[in-house]
Amino acid sequence: MKLLLHCCCGPCLFYPLTALRTKPFDITCLFYNPNIHPYMEYERRFEAFLQVAGSFSIPVLHEGGYGLTGWIKQMMQTAPALEYPARCSECYSMRLEFTARRTKEMGFDCFSTTLLYSRYQQHEAIRNLGMEAANRHGVNFVYQDFRHGWQQGIDMAVESGIYRQPYCGCIFSEGERYAKRAAKRFGRKV
Ligand code: SF4
Questions:
Q1: In this predicted model, what pLDDT tens digit does every residue of 38-70 receive, in sequence order?
Q2: Are the CB atoms for 34 and 6 separated by under 8 Å?
């Protein structure tokens, strides 16, 4: 079975690849993440993704490029999607819909996503949105709870020395990550 694996970043790729390679899948990794901002962060995460996929000798596809403008436009269509956590459903949907469509167009049998690895993401929403996107495009969504390999994946990422990002991805999550810390340090309101 030819499987297209949507990859959100390098660190989250270690365990899903380890698990999926024990099964009879012919895997290709897809990097499509218009939610990663700003530009140099996008480049840094893309480089880490290439390092991990390369270490497993897995072929890669890079689609979409840096997508701040398109991502913001799509988020704005779905108010109140700019608020956490509502915006995340639209963000997952955007990436899963794209992956499902490319799965069909490129002749893959099925797809999955490394988003299913993270303990910080909305796991049930990702599973449901993946299944819905698969149904719309007539392909299969391979669901696995990769969170079972959470620590193993972290250990592999640390050992490899690749870049491990400190926030989810969008410019909003970057602000949420640092604003409280800055407010405490400088005595400002968030
Ligand atoms: S916090 Fe993460 S999942 Fe949510 S909208 Fe931002 S990049 Fe997407």
A1: 999 999 999 999 999 999 999 999 999 999 999
A2: no
What pLDDT was estimated at residue 11?
Answer: 98
8 lines ligand 1 (CB under 6 A): no
Rounded to the nearest angstrom, the distance between the alpha carbon of 146 and the centre of ligand 1 is: 19
The total of structural domains in the chain comes to: 1
Question: What angle (nearest 5°) sits at the alpha carbon of residue 161, between those of residues 32 and 37?
Answer: 35
pTM: 0.95
35: Cβ below 6 Å to ligand 1? yes
Domain of 131, in residue numbers: 2-186
CATH number at residue 14: 3.40.50.620
Closest atom of ligand 1 relative to the 85 alpha carbon: 4
Query: What residues contact 136, with CB distance under 8 A and at least 6 apart?
Result: 97, 100
Nearest atom of ligand 1 to the alpha carbon of 169? 7
Stretches where the chain sits below pLDDT 50 are: none
